[in-house]
Amino acid sequence: MRYPQGGGLTAERQCKREELRLQAAERFARGEGSTLIARDLRVSVRSVQRWRHTWAEGGPRSLRSQGPASLPRLSEKQFAQLESELAKGPAAHGWEDQRWTLNRVKTVIGRRFHLTYTIQGVRKLLVRNGWSCQVPARRAMERDDDAVAGWVKEVWPRAEGQRRPVEPGWSSRTKPASP
User: Fold this and answer.
1) C-alpha distances in angstroms, 43 versus 20, 38, 103?
2) Three-state SS letters, 24-43
3) What is the mean pLDDT of the chain?
4) Which of 27, 20, 25, 55 is nearest to 41 (CA)?
5) For 109-117, which contacts have Cβ atoms below 8 Å and span 24 or more sequence positions?
6) Which residue from 41, 49, 44, 45 is spatially nearest to 18, judged by alpha carbons?
7) Alpha-carbon distance 50 to 129, whole Å?
8) By C-alpha distance, which of 135, 132, 134, 130 is closest to 4?
9) Cα-to-chain-centroid distance, residue 173
10) Residue 1's pLDDT band (boundaries 50, 70, 90)?
């Protein structure tokens, strides 16, 4: 992810970025070039050009931070309730197996809090709060190793198909020995 925990810039980093934009605004007023400003502030020229455009339209005030793009839809208290619901397991919510999928978590959020989330929104919510994708640590007890070995020996070669024999390639479309 781009930022720690997928939550965007921290308040401290937002302040630093705002300071950079305001320093750039002072230099815009003095007539300095974008390349020089970008090099001195250690940002991209494109960012400086965007800031200059915004500054030209609205002045230095337009370069101030707008705050976070959006507030979380579930409060910390509600997320704690969601975690306790997830701890009960999928069977407690009507699913037969013990797998939490993003779609199932979305359904629980809808039932419990009457909020609609997209699948990606659920993933971002969980990652932001420290959850991660889990893979089983052990093989399933029902696994039949003999059946797997037989499938790899007999079925897989047929599914994979025949490979062409390896021959030297030609740079020409026609072989030299062709009539």
Assistant:
1) 9, 5, 40
2) HHHHHHCCCCHHHHHHHHCC
3) 84
4) 20
5) 109/74, 109/82, 112/81, 112/82, 112/85, 113/74, 113/78, 113/82, 115/73, 115/74, 117/73
6) 41
7) 32
8) 130
9) 45
10) very low
Token pair 């929104």 is at which residue?
Answer: 121
Helix, coil or strand: residue 126: helix
Least confident of 2-11, 62-71, 157-166: 2-11
Q: Are 73 and 31 in contact (CB under 8 A)?
A: no
For the stretch 19-48, pLDDT in tens is: 999 999 999 999 999 999 999 999 999 999
Among the listed residues 18, 54, 51, the one whose alpha carbon sits nearest the alpha carbon of residue 37? 51
79: tokens are 């997320």
Residue-by-residue DSSP string for 85-108: HHHH-GGGGT-SSS---HHHHHHH
Distance CA 121, CA 70 (A): 12
Mean pLDDT calculated for residue range 112-127:
90
64 is written with which tokens?
């101030």
Tokens of 167: 């021959």
Half-sphere exposure of 100 toward its Cβ, with a 13 Å CA cutoff?
21
